[in-house]
Design brief:
single chain, 192 residues, globular, 7 helices, mainly alpha
């Protein structure tokens, strides 16, 4: 990852925290929470490893090819696993996320030697631009879904008492996780 080291370390922390929370969500009793938690954890930890500042670790080309292979396999798994009609938009977003990881790893593998510590690595400008637009839109959409509802506009209406929900079952935390991963992807694409 290029750019200031502090930004890189913040991305590492954010993505590792997301990956850890997604591992926690794999224990959920709610099927919707468990459905994609494993692939989201893989994305979180993979992005954390990718975001380590180049000044600290500039891996050889074969490491980036390994990233591309792992996320290519994860994209294939996502495509095969999600052939049913449910969650179409979410599975498409996951598939695109895996393919973006392949794209970023491929761009880093194709960069000239020593480019990982400079600003000469990068992918195709048109593809990167389209991905930037998609992730900017996704971040705005996901952020909008987190806005609080007016009092009484929730599912239970005014005066409804809600019970404590375990951390791994909280849908809003899963959305925060996806939002922050979208922001991290946007930042990594900008630095590509």
């Amino acid at each position: 990852m290029h750019g200031p080291a502090l930004a890189g370390w913040l991305l590492v922390a954010l993505c590792a925290a997301n990956g850890s929370y997604c591992l926690l969500r794999m224990r959920s009793a709610v099927d919707e929470q468990r459905r994609w938690a494993g692939t989201e954890a893989l994305m979180g930890f993979g992005m954390a490893a990718m975001a380590v500042p180049a000044a600290v670790m500039s891996p050889p080309r074969w490491v980036w090819l390994g990233y591309a292979a792992v996320f290519g396999a994860a994209a294939l798994y996502t495509a095969v696993r999600s052939r049913d009609g449910a969650y179409r938009a979410h599975r498409t977003h996951h598939l695109l996320g895996m393919l973006v990881m392949v794209y970023m790893a491929g761009a880093m593998a194709a960069a000239p030697a020593g480019a990982h510590s400079s600003h000469s690595a990068g992918g195709a400008p048109l593809v990167t631009g389209v991905l930037l637009l998609y992730y900017a839109g996704y971040v705005l959409w996901a952020g909008g879904r987190l806005l609080p509802l007016p009092a009484g506009a929730g599912p239970g209406g005014p005066g409804t008492v809600t019970t404590a929900v375990p951390w791994e079952d909280r849908a809003e935390l899963a959305l925060v996780c996806r939002l922050s991963m979208g922001i991290a992807t946007l930042a990594m694409l900008l630095a590509l």
